[in-house]
Amino acid sequence: MTHSVYGPEPSGVAPPPMSLLDRLVHALLPAPCLGCGQPLAAKGNALGLCGACRGALARLPAQACAVCALPLGEAYALPAGYRCGACRQTPPAFDLMLALWSYRPPLDAVVQALKFRRLDYLGRHLAAALAAELGPRIEGLTEIDCVVPVPLHWRRRLARGYNQAERIARPLAGFLGLPFDPILSRGRATPPQSLLGRAQRLANLRRAFRVPRPWEIRGLHLLLVDDVATTGATLDAAAEALKRAGAATVTALVAGRTPLHPATGASRV
């Protein structure tokens, strides 16, 4: 696999090349930084953030669960391969979760803008960051056969205009030189996960996902992509459906992982 690495920027993230339409829009309608609201330059604004806000993006700490990437307390050094209590008691259906940033400001503003403000170009920006920063770790795994986005139910997709996970996963597949296949579907509508606790989330998603063409993924290693993991329930349920359909390995990948103690003001999705 190959991945794109961009020039140095604060936090190591640089935007994909801007299209002519993007340049015209920026020239005619200068945009504020999604993090602090300050006016942005006409170009070079990765993730819709100014340089200071990009520098404030918090990488996940090294002290994290080896399976679900949950950031853990840093009072003691954890042994290699340490799993959190939840993963030891009830291992998730996915084999591993990779996450780039801690889901706290200003990343929450970027994700909310992608999901609810129709700034779908941010999906490509997030994909570029994931490929540049986590591409080497992805390449170090057993060969991945396909990139799969976590799906939305068709009614929510219609209301939103697109699936934010697909807006990340499709360009990510291109950056990594991998096939893209939205083979996973959402068989029933469910209440928003942000309104529920962990137990309710798990019950809410039970049998919500399905694979219409299971023969296409039997024995494959799939890269399952979403924007953010909070409790991990959505990725767990989606991975369970993929495994039930015959997938051999499922690696989950998200831009943000909710920290153990969310920062004040951070949105939860």
Q: Which keywords apply here?
A:
single chain, 269 residues, alpha/beta, Rossmann fold, 4-stranded parallel β-sheet, globular, disordered C terminus
Q: Could you please describe the fold and organization of this structure?
A:
The chain has helices at 20-28, 51-55, 85-89, 107-116, 121-139, 154-160, 164-176, 198-205, 233-244; strands spanning 96-102, 146-149, 185-186, 209-210, 221-229, 249-257. By secondary structure, the protein is α/β, with parallel strands linked by helices. The strands form 2 sheets. It has a 4-stranded parallel β-sheet, sandwiched between helices. A two-stranded antiparallel ribbon has the order 3-4. It has 9 helices and 6 strands; from the N terminus they run αααβααβααβαββαβ. Strand 5 (221-229), helix 9 and strand 6 (249-257) form a beta-alpha-beta unit. Mean pLDDT is 83; it is low at 1-12 and 262-269. 41% of the residues are buried. Helix 5 (121-139) packs across helix 7 (164-176).
Shape: globular
At the first level of CATH, what is the class? Alpha Beta
Mean pLDDT across all residues, rounded? 83
The CATH topology corresponds to Rossmann fold
Largest beta sheet: what is the strand line-up? Answer: 1-6-5-2
Individual helix count: 9
Radius of gyration: 18 Å
Give a brief rundown of this model.
With 269 residues, the chain is an alpha/beta fold. The chain has 9 helices and 6 strands, in the order αααβααβααβαββαβ.
Secondary structure: elements and pairs:
Blueprint: H1 20-28, H2 51-55, H3 85-89, E1 96-102, H4 107-116, H5 121-139, E2 146-149, H6 154-160, H7 164-176, E3 185-186, H8 198-205, E4 209-210, E5 221-229, H9 233-244, E6 249-257
Parallel strand pairs: 1-6, 2-5, 5-6
Antiparallel strand pairs: 3-4
